Amino acid sequence: MKKKTAVIFIGFFMTLGALSGCGGNDATEAASESAQTEDEGTGEDEEMQEAREEEQEQKEKEEKKAEKEAEKASKEDKKETEKKSEAEDSENKKEAQEETETESVKIAVLLPDQEEWSDDAQVLEANLKEDGYEPLLAYAEGDASRQVSQIQEMLEQQVAAFIITPVDAYGLTDVLAEVKEAEIPVFSYDDLIMDTNAVKYYTTFGGRQAGQMIAEEIIKKENLKEVQEEKETRTIEFLMGSPDDTEALFLYNGVMEGLQPYLDDGTLVCTSGKISFDDTGIIRWSRELAGTRMSQLLEDSYEDGAVPDIICTGFDDAALGAEETLETAGIVPGSEQWPLITGVGCKEEAVRSVASGKIGFSLFMDYRDLADNCEQMVHVYLTGEEDPEVNDYEQYDNGVKIIGTYLCEPQVIDGDNYELLIDNGYYEEEEIAPEAEETVTPVPEESVTPSPKEDEATPQESAASDWEEDKEAVKQSSGEKEDSDLKKEKESDKDEKKASEKVTLKKSKSASDDK
């Protein structure tokens, strides 16, 4: 019974196991198929990802390659462009040079006269040519109307700029209006052109600063501060520049700025009373007129051969004219009476006088510096790269506008440093060497041995003297006797002659009566 029951259980479980096995296989197969499908899907994703990565990598490589090629091409293009640009620039320069050679840019240079301004003209001309310009020089020879005509002629030649030193600073207003209308720049050289808006820039030595330097040098050389403290006085006279020259006025103002305090407190006394610019100006910078003015001052304001202690002038020819007048009046250079004479310009003759002590000092204004700076202003303005350099934009008002100015600096030249003008090549040594003074060789006085006094004579000398006196007395006595005998003999002959003449006359009369 038990065995039968066990067999039944075993059969039941085996049947159940078979049935479970069939279902389990299906599930297992399904699960296996699902897993396989998942595995297959995962594989496909990885392959796609790898493919995409490879594609991206390839793309990046191609992009980098393209960038490199583009960069290389860009560099080559740049080089090619630069080469073409250089070639074009070279061609343009060549064309410009050829054009310049056939038609240069013209610059008009108009100066008052050739005698005084030829040195400036040479420097201006050389500098302009060096910068590729064609300078057109013209001298007015002191004729203001002629200078106006010259400006009009230059306008017709289509110059690019004007450099002008005016003959008449107030006489160019109308003609420069035409220049302004033509948009041609004007550069005023050394003397400011007045009453026009055509002037662009101005180059000068700065008259006001020069005048201040003169005043400072007078104060130093005459020790005016000490004179002021000691309540003493010094006399001064003025021979200034031409009244029609604006730069002369600036210089006068500078002198007065420095000396006015000493004039106000009586340390300096102008005996003639001529102090204003109108009273002291020498028209047209005339040396002859300066000498005449000095002579009048001495005659009218100084008595008994007196002269001023200081003669302040605004130009070298005035100083030389004063020097000549003083020497004519008998004042000896180098003596205590000889005054301090000031000059401006360092002309050759004036420097010789400075070296010999006749002129106390002169202001050196190197025209080479002036010409260099003016030409540079013109060149910078025409090239348009930048504005010309100026160091004063306040004090130079020409009546219409304030003119941008470049001020060159003067230098004081006296007997101690005049050789600087040789060192810098401005003069040769023989040109400014002081004139040799005549050396007077003193004649030695003859030594006279005094005769001994009678009371100091020795006995031998007294005896000799007595013997000489006796000898002379005997000689005189003998001579007097001889003279007396000779006189008696002559009187006897004379009496005999008279008696003879009487007899002859008597006989002659008797013969006449007989007839």
TrEMBL record:
Record PROSITE patterns: PROKAR_LIPOPROTEIN
Region listing for Disordered, in residue ranges: 21-105, 434-515
Major localization class: other
Highest taxon listed in the record's lineage: Bacteria
Signal peptide: 1-20
Acidic residues bias locations: 36-57
Residues of the Periplasmic binding protein domain: 107-386
Pfam families: Peripla_BP_4 (PF13407)
Biased composition (Low complexity): 26-35, 439-451
Location in or out of the cell: Cell envelope
Keywords, sorted A to Z: Signal, Sugar transport, Transport
Xref: CDD domains: PBP1_ChvE
Biased composition (Basic and acidic residues): 58-97, 472-515
PANTHER family per the UniProt record, alphabetical: D-XYLOSE-BINDING PERIPLASMIC PROTEIN
UniProt-recorded name of the protein: Multiple sugar transport system substrate-binding protein
